[in-house]
Design brief:
Elements (H helix, E strand, L loop, with lengths): L2 H11 L15 E3 L13 H8 L19 E6 L6 E8 L9 E9 L4 E10 L1 E5 L8 E7 L3 E10 L2 E11 L15
Antiparallel strand pairs: 1-6, 2-3, 3-4, 4-5, 6-7, 7-8, 8-9
Length: 185
């Protein structure tokens, strides 16, 4: 058996492996105005546990151990690791602001059933930017106030996301998100 065929067969038989369908475009842009992700995914319990520890979510839990899934809209992203799922989660309902929403990027280890919040921010717009050979996407965010805008690009560096670029200024009529080198994977 050829190596490529053996690898393909091994991946397809691997528990939890779901190949991306050719007609399913991965959503890379998210907006507080849209209100939901385009291809919603249900969140596994470890991801809900990670969200329950967030400073904006925990105070609203009351006596509940986990937040209701209806508080979030999520999409499962492409991950280069077959042992993890990556989710972009957007706040819904009472967790949303008027012109801003909370967003989280959460990594779920499918072997240990442990999830970790890798990045979180309140933003109007979020864009994921995949660079070649990078395990995790760059994340561009944009926020607006009455007269100014704030934008930032976050890069994954070793074990966490760090701000790589920040822009703040007057609000022009149509201000693009910060630099995003590659639009799709």
């Amino acid at each position: 058996m050829r190596p490529f065929t053996a690898l393909t067969l091994a991946l397809l038989l691997w528990p939890g492996f779901e190949p991306q369908k050719a007609d399913e475009a991965i959503q890379l842009r998210f907006s507080a105005e849209d209100g939901q992700v385009h291809s919603p995914s249900s969140l596994p319990t470890p991801v809900l546990k990670a969200l329950a520890t967030d400073d904006g979510v925990h105070p609203l839990l009351g006596s509940r151990l986990l937040p209701p899934p209806g508080w979030f809209s999520a999409t499962k992203l492409t991950s280069l690791s077959i042992h993890e799922d990556l989710y972009l989660v957007e706040a819904e309902g009472e967790l949303r602001g008027a012109n801003v929403s909370s967003f989280w990027l959460i990594r779920n280890d499918t072997i240990s059933s442990q999830a970790k919040t890798m990045w979180t921010a309140a933003a109007h717009d979020v864009q994921l930017c995949y660079r070649k050979k990078e395990l995790y996407p760059d994340i561009s965010v944009e926020k607006f106030s009455a007269h100014t805008s704030w934008g930032a690009v976050f890069h994954f560096d070793k074990d966490h996301y760090a701000i790589a670029y920040v822009r703040q200024g007057q609000l022009p009529a149509d201000l693009p998100l910060p630099y995003c080198p590659i639009q799709s994977r």
